[in-house]
Amino acid sequence: EGWLASDKKILERRLKTFGRDFEIKSMAVAAGLNDQEWGPATTQFRRSLVSHPERHFKDTREMHDFVEGLKTNAAAGALQFYPLFLTFVKENAYIADISQDTQSLRELTDLRLPHTWYPKAHAMKRKIIYHGGPTNSGKTYEALLRLKQANDGLYCGPLRLLALEIYENLNMDGVYCSLITGEEKREIPSATHVACTVEMCNSSAVYDVAVLDEIQLMGDSERGWAALSCLQAKEIHVCGSMEAVDLVREKMFTLWMDTRTCYDVLVASDAIGMGLNLNIGRIIFDSILKFDGSDMVDITPSLEKYVSLARLDGDYFMCKFADIKEAAVLLADIPMPLAERFTFCTAPANLRNPLARRIFVDYAIGHGNQRSVPLDVYLPKMAPRNELALRDVEIKAKLIDVYLWLSYRFPDTFKMQAEALEMKDRVLELVEEGLVNVTYKKSDDKPKKKVGEWNTDRTKFVRYADARQAN
Fold first, then answer.
1. Could you confirm whether the keyword Nucleotide-binding appears in this record (predicted)?
2. CATH 3.40.50.300 residue ranges in the chain?
3. pLDDT band at 60 (very low <50, low <70, confident <90, very high)
4. Largest Cα–Cα distance of the chain, in whole Å?
């Protein structure tokens, strides 16, 4: 049997506020409901409860008691519907009945709120000042003035050369500053400031002032994961181009114009794979094969399971990890703890070069076997005289950088740090000399003007003897 007319009226009135109750939504999401499914789930629940009460109650007496509870306990509001709603979403597969392992996987793949991974930083009252403008507009200069005035501070830049420049400038101005990059550390005794590349910033240290240069790289698909959220600084100066201004205006416009457009049918190509969050009642796949960028592959159950569990908030995006994935494939058969394997995968190695790939794998094998890893890079005695030889020296320079990068993270196995630093100085000399040789060789190889050939529209070279005869 259905509801009595009077009971149904009370039920519908109370259900109107259920879908807008933030507390209930938070409880449901914590129980495993995908945030994007809240709207469809509450709509289906309201329809089911009103039209098919037999699905939720054993008999009419239980239905009547529930409505009486709504009348007598109005203060509880929409919260009284929550037990029924939780049962409904579980029965309708909005929340899966999951094992402990799957629950752990759900937590690992919940990527909606990455800023909550740094609770200490976000517990601070941080003042963030944005310096926007084009190149050479003085935006970084103003931020650095404030950095110099601070008792302690941090500069983070996307490039080693930028960090090196700030390191030198601060020390020249009497502000003791250390340099920390992926390939190099120059620690100054009693230093109050640090200049580093963004990936090397210390997220556990607390600073008075921090400067983040080229902040627009937060939007970079390969380096965006390295930046702002983790910094524990009372005052953070972010410097970059003007893209953020448009972003703020766009967010404001979205808040003003929060509308929805609904359709009965959506035809899309790879919409889910492109990251669209769609409230769809039924999905029909045209094929169980998918192009992954190089080959047609199956949509495996493990991939489907991962996609169904993974969650990402609209303010964030997934970075590209193609290089990390390629390194992981190379190191798959090398025995190594997971944390160390991931560190190797993030090393700045050029895996597209065969020599670099071979030596990188040799480094990993040596470390995996817990033995001292040799540098295994040999430099020519003479500076390169052509582009091919110069390119070879540049590759070896990058290999030395990789060894230094690993030596700072695994000093017990990469013990030739001093030799690598000496070799780095030498390889830089070879590159500089090689650039001079190649540049002058190109200028010498340029075809010279022949006597009597037109040089411009109005001048012409003539033989000196012919000119004398003409006079």
1. yes
2. 116-248
3. confident
4. 127
**Which pLDDT does position 461 carry in this prediction?**
44
b/e 329-360 (16+ beta carbons within 10 angstroms → b): ebbeeeebeeebbebbbebebbeebeebbebb
CATH 1.20.58.1080 fits 322-445, yes or no: yes
Q: What residues are paired with 207 via a beta bridge?
A: 233
Q: What region, left, alpha or beta, does residue 278 occupy, with left being phi > 0 and alpha being psi -120 to 50 degrees?
A: beta
Count the helices and strands in the chain (H runs, E runs).
17, 11
Dig out the tokens for 226 from the structure: 């390295």
The per-residue pLDDT for 182 is 83
Confidence of residue 467 (pLDDT cuts 50, 70, 90): very low
Residue span(s) of the chain under CATH 1.20.58.1080 come to 322-445
> What is residue 373's three-state secondary structure?
coil
Residues 6+ positions from 183 with CB-CB distance below 8 Å:
160, 348, 401, 404, 405, 408
The owner of tokens 């929409």 is: 78
Alpha-carbon distance 348 to 401, whole Å? 8
What value does the mean pLDDT of the chain take? Answer: 79
Please report, to the nearest 10 degrees, the dihedral formed by the alpha carbons of residues 324, 326, 327, 333 taken in order.
130
Please name the residues in contact with 91: beta carbons below 8 A apart, sequence gap of 6 or more: none
The contacts of residue 42 (CB under 8 Å, 6+ apart) are 18, 19, 85
CATH placement of domain 116-248: 3.40.50.300
Angle, in degrees to the nearest 10, between helices 60-72 and 5-15: 50
Whether this prediction's pTM lies above 0.70 is answered by no
Q: Using N-to-C axis directions, what is the helix angle for 82-91 and 22-30, rounded to 10°?
A: 40
Does the structure show a pLDDT above 80 at 347?
A: yes
Q: Cα(401)–Cα(414) distance, rounded to whole angstroms?
A: 12
Strand partners, 414: none
Give 297's strand partners.
290
Structure tokens at 76: 């509880």
C-alpha of 68 from chain center: 53
